[in-house]
Design goal:
95 residues, alpha+beta, 2 helices
């Protein structure tokens, strides 16, 4: 009868090749912020004070956002936590 020996890995020993992390470069993102006229886009009865179109281009893919400011505050068509809201607010402060 042959004996089977259990092999358990030693604690604290690392394989240098397996633990090597490779950092991928961040994709280049181009952002364009344009101010729109809320009266022309939403109508004369709108409560929107400021309206922006934010276009994010990353690796050949474009994402469009409509960002609004009205009595409810700042929000994007994709939600209040969308990154385009911060970009539009930053653009408004600069101008």
């Amino acid at each position: 009868m042959s004996k089977v020996k259990k092999v358990t890995p030693k604690v604290g020993v690392r394989n240098a090749k397996a633990n090597k992390t490779v950092k991928r470069p961040e994709p280049a993102t181009h952002v364009e912020v344009r101010e729109l006229d809320p009266l022309r886009k939403c109508g004369p009865a709108t409560s929107v004070q400021w309206m922006y179109r934010v276009t994010e281009r990353t690796e050949g893919r474009a994402t469009n956002h409509l960002v609004f400011f009205d009595r409810h505050g700042w929000y994007c068509e994709h939600g209040r936590t969308c990154s385009a809201v911060g970009l539009a607010r930053k653009h408004k402060r600069v101008r």
